[in-house]
Known about the structure:
Peroxidase, domain 1, alpha+beta, 8 helices
Amino acid sequence: xxxxxxxxxxxxxxxxxxxxxxxxxxxxxxxxxxxxxxxxxxxxxxxxxxxxxxxxxxxxxxxxxxxxxxxxxxxxxxxxxxxxxxxxxxxxxxxxxxxxxxxxxxxxxxxxxxxxxxxxxxxxxxxxxxxxxxxxxxxxxxxxxxxxxxxxxxxxxxxxxxxxxxxxxxxxxxxxxxxxxxx
Length: 183
């Protein structure tokens, strides 16, 4: 929990610098690249968290790995490493992406269905969710195990209208039946 707060503070600082230097989009792309690289390579995350490996070695590898990023991002990584916070670099990238979405008024909507949705259904869901004229980023997940219906998640709010959930609720209702069968 403590690392999330620290990562959020670093991300907000980087967002402020990006806005000040008019490099928001470039730094956003850099943070997405860092996040994708860390997600794809768990060894990199383990390497960054290792207390045995010296900071200068980590910085040299990070500079080589992310050589194509913005100079502001490179300087920020140098500061992170000098403060011994390289272990939370991925968390900082995720926190920056979240802060970027808040700044740009982008809502991430996740919808889970048993079958793929067509474009008109996606548009209806986006229109239903979009009450404050924000930009909607729709993430579609196909999970045949929910049988039918949908699970809609917007931020911290989730609406589960799947057939699987309704069957589970019905089963729990039968288990709690107060009537005892008499013979």
